[in-house]
Predict the structure.
Amino acid sequence: MSEVARLPTGRGQAAGTAGGIGESTLRPDGTLKVTGEFAYSSDLWHEDMIWGHTLRSPHAHAEIVSLDTAAALAQPGVYAVLTYDDLPAEQKNYGLEIADTPALAAGRVRHHGEPVALVAADHPETARRAAAKIRVRWRELPPVTDEESALAPGAPVLHPDRTDGHARHVPHPNIVHRQPVVRGDAAAAARRAAHVVTGEYEFGMQDQAFLGPESGLAVPAEDGGVDLYVATQWLHADRRQIAPVLGLPEDKVRMTLAGVGGAFGGREDLSMQIHACLLALRTGRPVKMVYDRFESFFGHVHRHPARIRYEHGVTADGKITHARCRIVLDGGAYASSTPAVVGNAASLSIGPYVVEDVEIEAVGLYTNNPPCGAMRGFGAVQACFAYEAQMDRLAAAVGLDPVEFRQLNAMSEGSRLPTGQQVDSPAPVAEILRRVKARPLPPERQWETAGGAADIRALPGGLSNTTHGEGVVRGVGYAVGIKNVGFSEGFDDFSTARVRLAVSGGEPVVTVHTAAAEVGQGGVTVQAQIARTELGVAQVVVAPADTRVGSAGSTSASRQTYMTGGAVRNACRAVREQVLALGRRRFGTYHPAWATAELLLAGGKVVTDGGEVLADLADVLDGEQPVDVELPFRHRPTEPFGIESGQGFGHVQYSFAAHRAVVEVDTELGLVKVVELACAQDVGRALNPLSVVGQIQGGTTQGLGVAVMEEIAVDPATGRVRNPSFTDYLIPTILDTPPIPVDVLELADPHAPYGLRGVGEASTLSATPAVLAAIRQATGLALTKAPVRPEHLTGT
Amino acid sequence: MRVTFTVNGREQQADDVWEGESLLYVLRERMGLPGSKNACEQGECGSCTVRLDGVPVCACLVAAGQAEGREVVTVEGLGQEGLSAVQQAFVDAGAVQCGFCTPGLLVAADDLLERFPWPTAPSDDDIREGLSGNLCRCTGYEKILDAVRLAAARRGEGA
């Protein structure tokens, strides 16, 4: 083997092709989305297609005494009516972590809106009317709706025969999971405190409110299987849950991702998937199901509402001595991802601060409230709202500025979390706070400075013309948060990518095929950028996501750019090695650089790192099979938290964001106008800066929503949802949303592909407490509940 | 019943329409025009916004029969040759994420810009007011504002 004849120039593969990582390339699906041609899951059509509809429970807790479908079946145009008795397999239940959710109610419903029966008909209205003719006799049962009623002596046990992994260590069967985190000696540390601050906080049930309703098309196949086109966050996890309930092997449930109209966690759990397949297999016809907004509020899980209690101590010079914390998360009727939400809540409950001595307990309940599971921020959101309120109170107790107090206690690289895990990558908590604080404030009191011509659209109440500035006060508030990235607690988290390099029409073309769900976040954009960077090829096609390729894991936990991006990178690198090996074999004798130089792919050619062109990729591949590689990618392993100690290397990576909120409050009417919501976030490396900022602004706005308007109202006596519509469940409009200036930091995480940090969730955490802090500063009110309602501000 | 109306300049007809069907359902399920979206079907989200005789309406709140003999313009009719300026600006500005709100926003923005003919341009407050009937859950609206500003500014480039 000859010596390397020259030193590498240091010019690497990443320096190459236009449209690669680091550029704000435009979405490949953008044109189809602006012309209306992009096929969302509710847009699908098939010859001979019929429509499915779901009959849902009007009660939160009831027995089904009898169920008569005869009148529904007799309705002209109806093809099938299915109930629990029609489920074809031994397996009747499904679930993300625990298979506790009946595909159709088995004699008992545990929440308002639980699916009871299915109808297939030739028109959606026929199906709705037939469903209304199904006669159900109910016997209502007393519901459990909070911790007190769920754990009371004699309380109805929602899942009496639990065999899941958490059943053994929970103190009551209506507790899904309990995770303590204990470190140091909180009692001893408390004695050093000059001040102790305790607080109780409440966080409302938030809805993901993705705009594209749950929908899809199931097409029965000749082999007895089914082809399902659906909007989801994780195709393979869906299939793992669907196939056993259909009584089919997984390879007979073929899934293709249809266009996804947003997700935010709300598509992690199944909705209409099993139902459409059951109807299609029963009728032999393609079946389309599309929820309307009312049904959508019952069709997916929500963010866990929480009751949270904190105790913090602080020394006279402003160092936090200890923390005690108890977080009660209402998981509702079925487990969904409650165990993982509990793990996140417990392990991240102290926030991005150094606190050595802690006693933490997080529990997730089974109740008869709507099931709760994944939503952007996943267990870290509720705690952040509460601990950030505590930080402001602690700062006030020692007479420090709220930002300086946070910076004094901020974690940094090398700090330990309460789980004992050391933070082994940049943690610029103090810096992102500094940046949002340093930003100039928006102009003061425009209704006074604008010369009497105030634009009422900029005031609380806006176009309702409720004030011209009278009774309006301004406040400024800060918050910062910590979110884990990727799946934690020892989960075998991986993604798979298949990358193919071929020559088409004399040009090299890369095809990237993964099962990663594009839900709007721009995964397809980034995958193509990575392929361009790694293979130096301009033309990259991202194939539709389906189950013909290995699992990509979930589009959640801010993980897809890290995980599927990492998988695409690795598969591309394997393709590159194969192409170079092929080139060496075919052309190596013509030029010594094939053997001696660092070789790169750039501009569709093999080049040396000195820029000398050795061959066109088209020539290297001429007459050869395309180079085709499918590879999984894993992040470094994590471990479960100790059942009683909560100690362990549980998380892969962290993401940090800080916000400064400026609000104006009409104190007479209790109306809030958020004037500006500035954010700084570390993203490690911005693979697509335009998309990164879009993610941060979108997450910020969802945090704003739950600060001042968003909450699913559940009647505490009956467990019924009171506001399942966009008339009564409000999400921010463009008038409610202020300018959101964003400061993006890029401090590389050495453990992650390209140094990137998952970006999707962190901004959702800190936006809410920043807005609350600003309202508190404006009004002087304590405000311990999110969302803030007008009556909290007016005291009426 | 049978309904006949003009969609994007072409007369279209649908048969066997149930009287309760909305204009949105007929466009999406009977005329092969699913571009107008079905996010709430209760007139709150604006994703189904179309122009009915020039006026923006929520197609989900219009009975199909009410469109009889009238002119409807949907997102599919905005760019007759390639993308319209507003469509292109939404792509360029990063105003599209999941895209489900996009068709309705485009129709609303198209109407808004018509009301501010070049060389006038809507202020940010005008844009916010003009698009306040269209919910977006992904973007936080900042890039949507960018897109409308961009589309407004580009009208002057060719003039």
Remarks:
- Residues 1-5 of chain A have pLDDT under 50 and may be disordered.
- The radius of gyration of chain A is 28 Å.
- The longest strand of chain A covers residues 472-485.
- The domain at 431-487+649-794 of chain A is CATH 3.30.365.10 (Aldehyde Oxidoreductase; domain 4).
